């Protein structure tokens, strides 16, 4: 059985491609999902690509990853800067975690410079556009290994 990597997306990322394209680009989340699935095949892992606008749903998926996930790629979106609850959930997950931001949060408003999730993440990728997801997936596979 190939290892399963969760790729979790927080609020408003369902609007990717339509929302502030000068910041987040024109690719949709479906495009990102497709690109990640293609890369996952190449890397010999499975991906579960999920998005929610609700904090509790993201926490429930992190809990599920405790059961069957080898690693987590997470773009917590605005919850990055606010959610101790997502940090706590990630702290209860044993595998590698890579945090992704499409935009370079450090070039933006100061409230985006702090991340609760970075206190847990093994790596952080910011400002690489949607390519950041594929970079993160490669890193998760390096950390978690490809086979069961
Ligand atoms: C984001 C950056 C966050 O500050 C913002 O709230 C998002 C997206 C990014 O991918 O660049 O919604 O996580």
TrEMBL record:
GO BP, sorted A to Z: amino acid biosynthetic process; aromatic amino acid family biosynthetic process; chorismate biosynthetic process; quinate catabolic process
InterPro entries to which the protein is assigned, alphabetical: DHquinase_II, DHquinase_II_CS, DHquinase_II_sf
Pathway participation: Metabolic intermediate biosynthesis; chorismate biosynthesis; chorismate from D-erythrose 4-phosphate and phosphoenolpyruvate: step 3/7
Subunit text: Homododecamer.
Reaction catalysed by this enzyme: 3-dehydroquinate = 3-dehydroshikimate + H2O
Protein name, entry field: 3-dehydroquinate dehydratase
Organism: Paracoccus haematequi
Gene3D superfamilies: Dehydroquinase, class II (3.40.50.9100)
UniProt-listed HAMAP family: AroQ
Alphabetized UniProt keyword annotations: Amino-acid biosynthesis, Aromatic amino acid biosynthesis, Lyase
Purpose: Catalyzes a trans-dehydration via an enolate intermediate.
Family: Belongs to the type-II 3-dehydroquinase family.
Domain of life: Bacteria
